[in-house]
Amino acid sequence: MVYVPLTLPDSLPESVRTAIRIGVEPQLQDVHSMLGTVIRSPTDDAPPRRLQQPIALVLLATVAGISKILFHLPTEFDQVRYKDRIQFVECLKGYFPWDIDPPKGVFPEEAVEILYDVFRNPLVHALGFTKAGMPTVRIGQLFRGTDDPENSIEALERLEEKPYTEPCLSVTQEESVLLVDPFYWGVRKLVERWSGDDTQVLHAEGRLRKPASQSRA
């Protein structure tokens, strides 16, 4: 069994399709491989580890890249500060399948900010540490591996309905928990939903067809 490519519209412009093929899908393919990977401990008394933190880093970086390169932020946000944060949050708010996999303990509008402020930024800039006194942050994985992990991961990639009873994000006063396998499923759906938005795709095509010097202006 192999990685299942994203389902993209036939009408997608070639420049946008290429950007997804070379910028997004390789990262998702890496996550596909990591989901089924177990790292054996060098000693018998320590349990084997899985790759939850690297998976979370890749997925959050993928969302950040999509929000920066493909996602079009409405002009009402033109003058706001911290535009990278706004792009990340608004992209997740608009296209992540919260309607199918709602977060537990918070509304989707809060969930997208938590993914940026509690998970994405600490993982990228602070080794995953958060400020003293804040709730515990935990990254977990529901899929623990089987004799045939590829088959299970492929089945996850093909799902249209919510993949697990547990949501990808759960928040309480004590802890915030991100589960990487349903989050992986949700990021795939984010890309597919975004690619079906003709207005967004039109803006992305215009940016991608500009010379690099114009794109940076």
Q: Summary?
A:
This protein is mainly alpha-helical and 217 residues long. It has helices at 14-35, 52-69, 83-95, 108-125, 149-158, 180-195, 198-208, 212-215; strands at residues 136-140, 169-171, 175-179. 52% of the residues lie in helices and 6% in strands.
Number of strands: 3
Give the fraction of residues assigned to helices.
40-55%
Mean pLDDT: 87
Order of strands in the sheet with most strands? 1-3-2
Order of helices and strands: HHHHEHEEHHH
Distance between the termini: 44 Å
Query: Biggest β-sheet: count, sense, barrel?
Result: 3 strands, mixed
Total helical elements: 8
Low-confidence stretches: 213-217
Can you give keywords for this protein?
217 residues, mainly alpha, three-stranded mixed beta sheet
Q: How would you describe what is shown here?
A:
52% of the residues lie in helices and 6% in strands. The chain is mainly alpha-helical.
